[in-house]
Design goal:
Length: 283
């Protein structure tokens, strides 16, 4: 391995950890305080990364966050494991300290709510999956405590726990292509993968759209960004409402277009949908 080489997320997971550390209580407390102070940097350094949830950018962006978070959370884990008292109380203290610091940043922003939402997506899409991928003794408990403390403070803007594997797998489902968002909406509604709508949209993709001069380019573009859009929706606070709006605003009219042979209009609606969602979630 050469210095400065960026490892993939899978290579990072395979990197062996050092030997178990035995800490005296005073040293453990000191290390806990030091790690707690470094927690906010695991978000601050990666502001804007919520825009990197695309096929071409996600892996490298995730590796950046993983490499930065690994020493901080390993130190936190070792300290909490060695300290007397309840580990859950220590983890809550760490999570609360992280959010306290971020709140100070948001208060100074011209759009505090927007800044909070951006940081939330960095936490949900990158930081939490990185901590879970570390698979430390306290990884799952810390993520659970962080998520619950977030919901306690911001009950109207929760986030949900995701994993690196779930997000990364989405970018590998090439077969979904243009129908990725449609599939997500239908899954949210409990419809099977072979429902009439998905069958119709796939036939539209493989037939009319591919035959358009810009069709192949559009399909490649949607394959790049659609999984990221779906990830942002699924981990965000308005999943059900967002999918309902997508259905009402675009998919229902688009499906009606297909049923009535208005293929060009269906294409225009689908392009508008993806452009609008890209601007909302990835810009």
């Amino acid at each position: 391995m050469f210095c400065g080489t960026r490892l993939s997320a899978d290579e990072l997971l395979d990197t062996p950890a050092g030997p178990a550390v035995s800490l005296a209580p005073d040293e453990a407390a000191s290390r806990f305080d030091a790690a707690k102070k470094q927690l906010p940097s695991c978000v601050r350094r990666f502001r804007g990364y919520q825009k990197k949830v695309t096929k071409n950018e996600f892996e490298a962006a995730f590796s950046d966050v993983y490499q930065a978070a690994e020493p901080v959370f390993r130190a936190l884990d070792e300290a909490v494991s060695a300290m007397p008292g309840s580990p859950d109380a220590r983890l809550l203290e760490g999570a609360a300290a992280l959010l306290d610091e971020l709140e100070l940043d948001w208060a100074q922003d011209r759009s505090p709510k927007g800044a909070r939402e951006d940081d939330k997506m960095v936490i949900a899409i990158f930081l939490v999956p990185a901590i879970r991928k570390l698979a430390l003794a306290t990884s799952e408990d810390f993520c659970d405590v962080l998520q619950k403390e977030w919901v306690r403070r911001y009950p109207k803007a929760p986030f949900y726990l995701g994993s690196y594997e779930e997000i990364s797998t989405g970018f590998r489902k090439k077969i979904l292509g243009l129908c990725f968002i449609t599939t997500a909406v239908c899954e949210e509604e409990g419809k099977p993968d072979d429902c009439e709508e998905l069958t119709a949209f796939r036939a539209f993709r493989d037939g009319y759209l591919k035959s358009c001069p810009d069709g192949e380019a559009l399909i490649r573009e949607y394959y790049d960004i659609a999984p990221g859009i779906v990830t942002c929706i699924n981990l965000g606070s308005e999943r059900r409402e967002t999918y309902r709006a997508i259905r009402e605003t675009w998919l229902a009219p688009c499906y009606e277009d297909l049923q009535n042979g208005r293929l060009a209009q269906c294409k225009d609606r689908y392009v508008d949908m993806v452009r609008t969602l890209e601007h909302r979630f990835l810009s």
